[in-house]
Amino acid sequence: MSDNSYLDMQLLRFTTAGSVDDGKSTLIGRLLYDSKSIFEDQLESVENSSKKRGVDHVDLALLTDGLKDEREQGITIDVAYRYFATPKRKFIIADTPGHIQYTRNMVTGASTANLALILVDARHGVVEQTCRHSFIASLLQIPHLVICVNKMDLVDFSEERFNEIVKEYKEFASKLNVSDIRFVPISALHGDNVVNRSEHTPWYDGETLLHTLETIHIDSDQDHVNARFPVQTVIRPKSDEYHDYRGYAGRVAGGIYKPGDEVVVLPSGFNSKIKSIDTMEGQVEEAFAPMSVTITLEDDIDISRGDMIVRPNNQPQVEQDLDVMLCWLNNKAAQPRAKYIIRHTSNEARCIIKEVLYKVNINTLHRIEDDKAITMNDIVRVKIRSTKPLFIDEYNDNRNSGSIILVDESTNETVAAGMIRL
């Protein structure tokens, strides 16, 4: 494979979630092992560790348990990112812990994912954590869910049991806002339907898990309708060759941009046309999310970081009062009327949490309206007021221009992540 074709391969980000012993680590180990994405020395060390533990097979869970020491020492467990590639696609896995106290880690790992793998133990079926993880995936608008019914070997690969779990999950998921849900019967321990088809499930005519990951359609996951280009920096080389060059660099957050397009710059409201779109490889004829590009305009307009280049007939809302679904990430509770820094695309302002509308009971999905304290891992609906207008979209329409983070001014810690509701 040439370097270029490798770089051009599509990247799929997926997150994994499940209860504590659902076999997530074994499943990721199996994916890496059967798709030949691990190095000889890694395999050797896992084989040795497995022997030391007296396990008669290679314990693939050890491939992913880099956080083992942390677990034993009781340190906060974070999200572990792993990278692998097959000839068809590149993958980044965000492996998140299953316990309730790690809700924030799942939110962090899932925020950029195209797909979530949710593991269900075939013996136990849909449990509280299955519902909680599915709710977070739906809240974060992850477009695709793959429900891996694992440990099928422990229920004798029963088609009846698999169908029961599918029915049970679909009943629960009817309350969620997820359009694409798929089910795969697997045994991560033995590799059934993970990378290779299983002879134990002749009744299953769907795809293996890896085939689903390699072929699932993700081009339309990005918002190609609402043109949003938050400016990160202004490029002025001032060299002899590019003496008058003035480019606006950033990452396309939505829509498609082409030279000649009419655009309007927010907040000034000045109109212009795109002169060129430049990248490290040279000029391109169109730019779309999530490309990083530099746009030049035909008119000399005063533009700085935090401004947004949009289409005249399709503009975001300009608001100082935001309605936000917030996940509190910090172990220090939110202080009433405390000031925070709000970051939205490349823009930054100060803000206060003006009002707490309700908390969500993440297990029952019920609203709690009488408890207004915001503590770690809470998911709450709040009203926020910022010191300057922000150019916002509904999170369900655009995950980039519809999300914010809050930062503590004194410690510079990210304390919350939020999804904007309009």
Description:
It contains nine helices and 22 strands. It is α+β, with helices and mostly antiparallel strands and 422 residues long. It has three domains: 3-221, Rossmann fold, CATH 3.40.50; 228-310, Translation factors (Elongation Factor Tu (Ef-tu), domain 3, Beta Barrel); 317-421, Translation factors (Elongation Factor Tu (Ef-tu), domain 3, Beta Barrel). Strands 2-3-1-4-5-6 form a six-stranded mixed β-sheet, sandwiched between helices. Mean pLDDT is 85; it is low at 67-77.
Descriptive key words:
422 residues, Rossmann fold, Elongation Factor Tu (Ef-tu), domain 3, 3 domains, 6-stranded mixed sheet, 9 helices, globular
* SS field, number of helical segments: 9
Oligomer: single chain
Number of E-state strands: 22
Categorize the overall geometry: globular
CATH superfamily of the largest domain: P-loop containing nucleotide triphosphate hydrolases
- Compute the number of structural domains: 3
Widest sheet: strand ordering: 2-3-1-4-5-6
CATH hierarchy class name of the largest domain:
Alpha Beta
Summarize the main sheet. Answer: 6 strands, mixed
Q: Note the beta-strand portion.
A: 25-35%
CATH fold description of the largest domain: Rossmann fold
Global Rg: 24 Å
The average pLDDT value, as a whole number, equals 85
